[in-house]
Amino acid sequence: MTKMVNVRVVDVYKSYGKVQVLKGINFNIEDGEFFVLLGSSGAGKSTLLNILAGLEAVDSGSIFFDDKIVNDLPPVERGVAMVFQNYALYPHMTVYKNMAFPLKMLNYKKDSIDRIVKKVAETLDITWLLNRYPRELSGGQAQRVALGRALVRDPKIFLLDEPLSNLDANIRSKIRNELKLMQKQLNKTFIYVTHDQMEAMSLGDHIGILHNGVLEQYGRPIDIYNNPINEYIATFLGDPEINMLSCIKYRDVYECDGSIKFKLDLDDKKITLGIRPENIYLHRQNDNDIEGKIIPKVSELLGSHTLIIGSVENKEIRIVTEETNISIGKEIPIYINLNKCLIFNEKGENINK
Ligand SMILES: Nc1ncnc2c1ncn2[C@@H]1O[C@H](COP(=O)(O)OP(=O)(O)OP(=O)(O)O)[C@@H](O)[C@H]1O
């Protein structure tokens, strides 16, 4: 097995014509980790992935694999393998031939090809599928084969560009779990691009969030979720979406959308209070909880929990609760613990102490 690489991206800039797509990107990826690049459409994710693959050149900046600069290395010499959205399996070839293909192109001998394909098939538990054609595979199996085809060349890094986005929602989470297990088993560095925050949260050892060509935040999913640096990130992560209440200070009391009032030792005249739906309660939890009111309008069962969408003074509030007996249309109290809220200043920056 090749040694795991440590990827370092240093001050990377990239423009297409007048459009600056990457504006000074810096981050590190540890050996053998599952790294997720998350961002909305047009954020620059694919561009960055293509730069790592060697399919695009940087305008300035450096890419290091294992402390070795690879800016000028062509894709085949980088030891990376790409797995695309549609898996790009050849429909007229069996699984065996699909997996053998990259080695055949590199002029490997027939018996070496056979040995490698069978070994990789065993690792991925797809030996029994070797004689099938791609049309005879489920989404998850096709994904294993696509990984297998990438794995035969023993790449140091896997680059995956939205590999699950063509799958039905119901098998997506199953395949997501499998992918994570396979990555841990293979102990290879995975760099995974997605616009889906759920996918990023569940797969990533670390996540980098790209927004308009800037890496806004980097870290462990739970740390970013609990401590997003700004309103954009706070809103991007989490489903149902975080509640954002605009608050204005009158004397020493902040008054917010949705009839919520509280005291806070801050100088800012205007702040935004970010409250995750799971942090709003229908019963008092602590003496110093802030009390508000909502009129529930919709209640949606999420399995073990219920999502309530309620409103006060035209402000919509999302609550996730374990309670099931909610009367729609009747005003009820809500309780918020200020310590569990995020506080943003007028510029949208997180100012939690
Ligand atoms: N070859 C190109 N020529 C010109 N502009 C490009 C080219 N490739 C990408 N862009 C532009 O660069 C920006 C970033 O594109 P990129 O594909 O990296 O975004 P993305 O985050 O992967 O988006 P998506 O999730 O929609 O694929 C977009 O505004 C896109 O239109």
List the defining traits of the structure above.
353 residues, elongated, OB fold (Dihydrolipoamide Acetyltransferase, E2P), five-stranded antiparallel β-sheet, 24% helix, single chain
Can you lay out the helices and strands and say which pair or pack?
Elements: E1 7-16, E2 19-29, E3 34-38, H1 45-53, E4 60-65, E5 68-69, E6 80-83, H2 95-105, H3 110-123, H4 139-151, E7 157-161, H5 169-186, E8 189-194, H6 197-203, E9 206-211, E10 214-219, H7 221-226, H8 231-236, E11 243-250, E12 253-256, E13 260-263, E14 270-275, E15 280-281, E16 290-301, E17 306-312, E18 315-321, E19 332-336, E20 342-344
Parallel strand pairs: 3-8, 3-9, 6-7, 7-8
Antiparallel strand pairs: 1-2, 1-4, 4-5, 9-10, 11-12, 11-14, 12-13, 14-20, 15-19, 16-17, 16-19, 17-18
Helix pairs in contact: 2-3, 2-4, 4-5
Adenosine-5'-triphosphate is lined by residues 16, 19, 21, 39, 41-47, 195.
Domain ABC transporter: 7-237
Pfam families: ABC_tran
InterPro entries: AAA+_ATPase, ABC_transporter-like_ATP-bd, ABC_transporter-like_CS, ABC_transpr_MalK-like, ABC_transpr_MalK/UgpC-like, Mo/tungstate-bd_C_term_dom, NA-bd_OB-fold, P-loop_NTPase
What does this structure look like?
With 353 residues, this protein is of the alpha+beta class. It folds into 2 domains: 7-236, P-loop containing nucleotide triphosphate hydrolases (Rossmann fold), CATH 3.40.50; 243-344, Beta Barrel (OB fold (Dihydrolipoamide Acetyltransferase, E2P)). Helices cover 24% and strands 34% of the residues. It contains 8 helices and 20 strands. It has helices at 45-53, 95-105, 110-123, 139-151, 169-186, 197-203, 221-226, 231-236, and strands at 7-16, 19-29, 34-38, 60-65, 68-69, 80-83, 157-161, 189-194, 206-211, 214-219, 243-250, 253-256, 260-263, 270-275, 280-281, 290-301, 306-312, 315-321, 332-336, 342-344. Strands 6-7-8-3-9-10 form a 6-stranded mixed sheet, with helices on both faces. A 5-stranded antiparallel sheet has the order 13-12-11-14-20. A 5-stranded antiparallel sheet has the order 15-19-16-17-18, with no helix packed on it. Helix 2 crosses helix 3 (110-123), helix 2 runs parallel beside helix 4 (139-151) and helix 4 runs parallel beside helix 5 (169-186). The longest helix is centred in the middle third of the chain and has 18 residues, at 169-186. The two termini are 46 Å apart. Bound molecules: adenosine-5'-triphosphate. Adenosine-5'-triphosphate (ATP) binds next to strand 2 and helix 1.
